[in-house]
Design goal:
The protein has 6 helices and 10 strands, in the order βαβααααβββββββαβ. By secondary structure, the protein is an alpha+beta fold.
Amino acid sequence: MIYNFSIDFSEIIKSKIPGLKIGVLNCSGFKVRKKSDFVAEQFVNLEHHIKDQYSENAPSTNPTVSAVRRMYRRIGWEPTQYRPSSEAMIRRFLKNKGLYRINNAVDLGNVVSTRFHLPMGLYDRDKISGSISVDVGKDGEEYQGISKDFIHADGKLVLRDYAGVFGNPTADSIRTSIQHGTKNIMALFFTPPEVSDVYIRETLEHLKDLYLSECPEATIVVEVVNS
């Protein structure tokens, strides 16, 4: 159990992506703000890091990016058509578009997802209804996205609670999104089986450190959940 939430994996996920892991960060007592000098500094550092890393090689040459792509393809989801959020953000930097600025919680999550190349969903924990299931979307299933009216979930790797689908590694839902009044945050990193637990924990600890630098009074717990 994680803060009264259990995370389980459907049988179809266990069959199609055996060994899939979810990196989990639970943060209580965070103060969401629209702007932050600390976040702005992290964005600048990240842009330099990404452009240095891919000055000569394409993102697809990175083993983590490749592993995430294979994770998508194992359930029949084409990653060049529906980019994992982590890869999409890398490509925005390489095109000199930068990242969208949302709020300090979301922005720092995006910094870590981009740096470590693992797609992440970020949620208001108080808006999640019951236990979480990692599943594949069913025919006709959809949910309201943050930047789009509706996102089709069928055939995609999704997160589901008692109220329905609330996110995938490409797009989250408006229902569980981080807003100004959010206090309790759950970050979930979708991690292919080829990626080590050590790497996932390094990713989680980096986000934990950034959150505590931004909000020292917050309480944070991290762990890795295996399928």
